Amino acid sequence: MPDGTVRVMKRAAKGGFTFRKPATDDGTAIHELIARCRPLDENSIYCNLLQCSHFADTCVVAEEGGEIRGFVSGYIVPDARERLFIWQVAVAPEARGNSLGRRMILEILNRPEQGDITELHTSITPDNKPSQGVFSSVADFLDADVEQKVLFHEDDHFDGQQKTEILWEIGPFDMEEADRPLEDVA
Ligand SMILES: CC(C)(COP(=O)(O)OP(=O)(O)OC[C@H]1O[C@@H](n2cnc3c(N)ncnc32)[C@H](O)[C@@H]1OP(=O)(O)O)[C@@H](O)C(=O)NCCC(=O)NCCS
């Protein structure tokens, strides 16, 4: 990726939001943000701290005025190093509608150290229209195909206690070809 492109993607964007990797100081703020973002699962603060440390390279926070307004957690799939799995996307209710969900995901993909990623996977429950909107928007931006299949079934895997999670497979894509100035992303 050309250096200039990375520089453009990293600067402060629409709405005064800035993006950065999370740090362990962010653990409790991220935990509180997720608690405000139903229907997301609230994991332990310990889990959030692991995301902020071991998985910081594939997670992002969005800040405005020093406050965390958004968080995306993800990881590289251990047996498929070209694949980023997005675990959770959380945008504070007061910050929604600023393309933050989409822009945070693209911020991870634009990091120089993530240049080998060509596939994006996530799972979404069939009733989560906002999440479907975010990932459809990301796929559009990447000009990538989307395939869907059952990942975890509500009866087979959740014993009827949670809804079926549908795996969204987005890709393949090439970030250098997909790349556009941040003004187009926002
Ligand atoms: C889902 C969520 C992250 C969206 O955040 P956001 O920053 O407002 O989303 P964006 O502005 O990036 O929207 C991206 C696309 O999704 C669409 N979208 C966003 N919210 C939507 C909604 N409630 N219904 C339908 N589409 C929606 C937008 O229209 C946009 O589409 P476009 O690019 O074609 O215009 C936020 O609503 C949230 O935190 N919800 C609770 C937690 C959750 O469900 N997370 C997702 C599961 S991991």
Task: Compile the SSE list and pairings.
Layout: H1 3-10, E1 18-20, H2 27-35, H3 45-53, E2 60-64, E3 67-77, E4 80-91, H4 100-109, E5 119-124, H5 129-142, E6 146-152, E7 165-170, H6 175-178, H7 182-185
Parallel strand pairs: 4-5
Antiparallel strand pairs: 1-2, 2-3, 3-4, 5-7, 6-7
Q: CATH H level: which superfamily?
A: Gcn5-related N-acetyltransferase (GNAT)
Small molecules in complex: coenzyme A
What is the CATH first-level class name?
A: Alpha Beta
Largest sheet: 7 strands, mixed
The spatial strand order of the largest sheet comes to 1-2-3-4-5-7-6
Mean residue pLDDT? 90
Return Rg in Å.
Answer: 16 Å
Question: How would you sum up this structure, described in words?
Answer:
- The chain has a single domain, classed as Gcn5-related N-acetyltransferase (GNAT) (Aminopeptidase, 3-Layer(aba) Sandwich), CATH 3.40.630.30.
- The chain is globular.
- Strands 1-2-3-4-5-7-6 form a seven-stranded mixed sheet, with helices on both faces.
- It has helices spanning 3-10, 27-35, 45-53, 100-109, 129-142, 175-178, 182-185, and strands spanning 18-20, 60-64, 67-77, 80-91, 119-124, 146-152, 165-170.
- The model is unreliable at 1-13 (pLDDT under 50).
- The chain is an alpha+beta fold.
- It contains seven helices and seven strands, in the order αβααβββαβαββαα.
- The longest helix is centred in the C-terminal third of the chain and has 14 residues, at 129-142.
- The relative contact order is 0.16.
- Helix content is 31%, strand content 27%.
- The structure holds coenzyme A.
- Residues 37, 39-40, 88-91, 96-102, 128-131, 133-134, 137 line the site of coenzyme A.
